[in-house]
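Data follows
____________
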Amino acid sequence: MIPFVPEHIEAYAEAHSTPEPELFKELAAATRAQTTHPQMMVGHLEGMFLKLLVVLTKAKRVLEVGTFTGYSALCMAEGLPEGGRIITCDVDPKATTIARSFWARSPHGAKIDLKLAPALDTIATLDEPIDLVFIDADKQNYVRYWDACVPKVRSGGVLLADNVLWSGAVLDPKTDDDKALARFNQHVLHDDRVQMVMLPIRDGVSVAVKR
């Protein structure tokens, strides 16, 4: 992933944000040490952004598509009130074992419900309205995840999608993932069910509110 913000500017932003708790620092270190693609982790700034969106929207029911090592799920869980719940979907037992081990050390870990199964299968079973969705999984299925999630989200609820700038590759897509994300961005832009804005946070985050 090619950063869009110069490293020294990002460091300044981190230094002027609520500090990263020690547990999250340990989780980030474990992710770097134990996984082959640690850049998939959202990191402190984006994690705080997700947490604050949960707080601002007063979300009680959150859906995450793509768990990885659980950094983003734990960030959002911290923003949930007592009784709130986050359902997070993944198919990787190794990465999610790391996630579970860190969730178990947090007082907010009990709010997280991991579904180790194809996300589209899990989404199809959900009946209660969702307040906030975060999509950060395999890029080829982004449009399918989006279209499965939008009907599940309440009016006024929020949907977020990560990696929508894809290190700038969406401007001149060449690989299958480049093309999939470029198609996804067009799909969301023209989706009349939502209002949206694309933000150059980390690798690009699209934020949409359901009408």
About this structure: The radius of gyration is 16 Å. The helical segments are 7-15, 22-34, 43-57, 71-79, 93-103, 119-125, 142-149, 176-189.
